[in-house]
Amino acid sequence: MASPPTIAAVDGGEQNQEKLHFVLFPFMAQGHMVPMMDIAMVLAQRGVLVSVVTTPVNAARFESQIRRNALPINLYPLDFPCAESGLPDGCEPFDLLPSFSLAANFFAASARIEKLSDKQRIG
User: Which PANTHER family match (predicted)?
Assistant: First the structure.
């Protein structure tokens, strides 16, 4: 296997090699999550370190696949503001909404997650 992809950085006349690290934050819907995780796995298979920022329910959907393939993918779950957005607990992926009438609430919660990510330490 070839060595992992690296970035060459020049620091004080010396060249340092740093391993590539992709941080992915897919939208919380299956049509976005599945292709993004496929991309994460392809990158990881090529020696790239990958971190995926998502919610606990979404992370649980992919943990066993990542573990089974022993890939260097880190999952960083962020709390999803269901209650603050008028959603039932656990409605973190769009496909778990009990009614399409809650779509606006889901998008409002998705917008709030950026503010929450500032408060929650990742990594």
Answer: GLYCOSYLTRANSFERASE, UDP-GLYCOSYLTRANSFERASE 73C3-RELATED
